[in-house]
Amino acid sequence: MSHGGISREAPPRIDAEADVVVIGAGACGLTAALRAKAEGADVIVLERDASPSGSTSMSSGFVPAPATRFQGKIGVADDTPERFAKDILAKSKGLSDPDLTRLASETIGPALEWLADTCGLDWIVLDDFLYPGHTRHRMHAVPEKTGAALLARLLSAAEQADIPVVTEAPVDRLYADADNRIVAVEIARPDGATEILGCKALILACNGFGGDSDLVAEHIPEIAGGLYYGHEGNKGDALLWGEALGADLKHLSGYQGHGSLAHPHGILISWALMMEGGIQVNAEGRRFSNENGGYSEQAVHVLKQPGGIAWNIYDERIHAFALGFPDYQEAVKAGAIRQADDIAGLARITATPETALGETLSEIASFQAGITDDPLGRDFTAKPSLAPPYFAVKVTGALFHTQGGLRIDDKARVLDRNGAAVPNLFAGGGAACGVSGPDVSGYLSGNGLLTAIAFGFLAGTYCAGLR
């Protein structure tokens, strides 16, 4: 009678009811809940963990958005949703879903402004460097510049709005009628008890499937051997429920990787170090890719190196710049960052051949001076050459979160394989197909939180009409 966590039988009882049930208390779920509540719906958020954290809190917390008043404050007056969509499509080589790309690009700016005006979130725009693929400064963050702070502010807004966020409440079953309408969800409590919650609309905001090694091996075998630096609770529940309901699944091979996770510390080292002039070398002291191509695809490049590791090499200027990032400060405290006065010392602390490392740095100086071109295609002329003292951090490649999922329409309704909307089921963030296309190289910085907040905003807006 049940399949993939879906029961076609009527619920044996209803313990409580809400107009809208949201599964997942990350940026997507909380944005959806705040918006649905503002639209007049009675909302409950269900969170599997004892304390909401998830992918949002593990992220940098940076959200790309065009044409916002926050950009205007730093003098960016010519960004548009069309320009942003063009950047997204350029990064994915045109393979992103065009409709979802347009939808996200047009929605995210108004969503961030609404969160500021209605929910008290403060946004700043980072203007000290451009992330790979972005043609304008459009990366928004809360003042603390961390994902944990973004989540904390959203949780505070939910509390102010009297939205209950029920923790330790994993959902293990959806009840669907003959028309695929979700009528209730079943919660499995830590003490073994179950609760059944009736609903008029359900929003899946429980991220993707990065935490399920079997699903990763099936859909993204190229990263199956890498570390997983996402939330362990991302087990693909939305994917499996959707599949059982006949939903259309798209771009399951798409994901965000990262080629700069401090090893073995497990601390994210911002790719801004590379954009500021840093390089990556392997255990042989040689560069192996164009570091300005993007940090997502760099995960695969790093994992192909001996031992699946690389060294980020940079200098004191970049080190001082990086100290502005909380994650980097944490890496310094953890002892992940090493320093050397010269090339010989750098070779010792990285256990790389001094001759090869010296040749690599000489080549970089030549590229920077415009004497020769980098055969890997990177332009070094815009940044100063690396100079002693040098800094280094050992890194590996990792899977951060999946980017494929349930295909949705312009109201964030889940679509079935015939293109029709499942009556009252909505999805966003990692549960939905994103805008990165089917390949790791299609991920443009910030795409994860982009679709979490934009599609969560849409889901909350339109699900309220089903009351």
Automatic annotation (TrEMBL):
SUPFAM superfamilies xrefs: FAD/NAD(P)-binding domain, Succinate dehydrogenase/fumarate reductase flavoprotein, catalytic domain
Coiled coil ranges: none
Highest taxon listed in the record's lineage: Bacteria
Limits of the FAD-dependent oxidoreductase 2 FAD-binding domain: 19-436
Cofactor: FAD
Alphabetical UniProt keywords: FAD, Flavoprotein, Oxidoreductase
Gene3D superfamilies, per the entry: FAD/NAD(P)-binding domain, Succinate dehydrogenase/fumarate reductase flavoprotein, catalytic domain
A GO molecular-function annotation: oxidoreductase activity
Record-linked PANTHER family: FAD-DEPENDENT OXIDOREDUCTASE 2 FAD BINDING DOMAIN-CONTAINING PROTEIN, FUMARATE REDUCTASE
Protein's UniProt name: FAD-dependent oxidoreductase
Native source species: Roseibium aggregatum
Lineage: Bacteria, Pseudomonadati, Pseudomonadota, Alphaproteobacteria, Hyphomicrobiales
